[in-house]
User: Fold this.
Amino acid sequence: MSFQVSGDEANIVAIGEGGERKRRCWPCQRNKVNNAEPKKLGWIQGVLIRCLLNIWGVMLFIRLSWVVGQAGIGFSSVIIILSTVVTVVTTLSMSAICTNGEVKGGGAYYLISRSLGPEFGGAIGIIFSLANAVAVGLYVVGFAETLTELLVRHDVPIPGLSEINHIRMFGFFTAILLLGIALIGLDWESKIQIVLLVVLVVALIDAVIGSFIPRSCDHTVTLQGFTHYRWGTFVENFSPDYHDNQNFFSVFSVFFPAATGILAGANISGNLKDPQTAIPKGTFTAIFISSAVYLVIAWMIGFTVVRFAPGTPTLYFDKIVETAATSSFQCSSGLDESSSNFTYCTSSFFDLGTVNGFMQNCTDCLSVPCDYQDGI
Assistant:
């Protein structure tokens, strides 16, 4: 009797006397074949969470306040809505490809090559990979800058290096950590992404709740930008007030990368249980959730933070005295004590507020005397 082994069918074909063929199961080989199948992800873990983590990034915490300070609440909302429209149109095109046939592994390269050909797919795929690498660098540097600033602000001792070297050091170790996460496999990587999303959501909730916490009144004026919810602040911040040669389109170009990241789920199409359903469903849900959060945060900033603030009481009062005494320092508006209308001089000595990146100074707040708390 002789045996023939078929690996594809995971069985043994036994050839006995007279040429009779009998199939015998080979359990070990069959289990090996079954265990080789990669784990498949659903639309929430495979698409929604990935897209949210890629859409929400350094722009949300560092540059959204700058966008509101430059373009105002009204045009900031227009910028967010226009960015959403662009991503929705792109997702509609991607969904049409996904639902028009079987979706295999390859992500954006496969989707583009199936509609435009492998030449276009390969070229765009290379550019897309490089763009992702640049985006990782952007997020790492943003994280390292913020971490360095927080450590300095809270007097945490760090090695005797310059600030730029601190950023490089933290960025280097962060990139190594991200590389390790990418190498440990899809199963662990998807679990870590859930943890990162929880941290991100907690940070957003903390920012929203913090905007409602009343300011402490100690009869001091720190004037660092935060006014609590005030109608006067909203009116001042609603219209655009461009500075440093900015305009609507330049501000839009700064914000738009914050709306990208919609291909994060499609890029692992080979690891999805049902990519034809998961990719459109998860991507559209992520777009609408992230856009709603951007609008809420933008309006919250516009209601609670002034465009310009001096940062310290000493600097503020020194400049006011200098202006009153010499008139050499031009200031079109200041703190109107008679009407409690909190409008601020837009001169260069104001180094905090939305225009100057208030979100980077997350521990700063505007504490005004109790006499002014009932103003507009």
Observations:
- Confidence is low (pLDDT under 50) at residues 5-10, 218-222, 313-351, 357-376.
- The CA atoms of residues 99 and 277 lie 7 Å apart.
- Strands lie at 2-6, 11-15, 21-25, 335-336, 341-342.
- The chain has two domains: 2-31, 43-215+239-304.
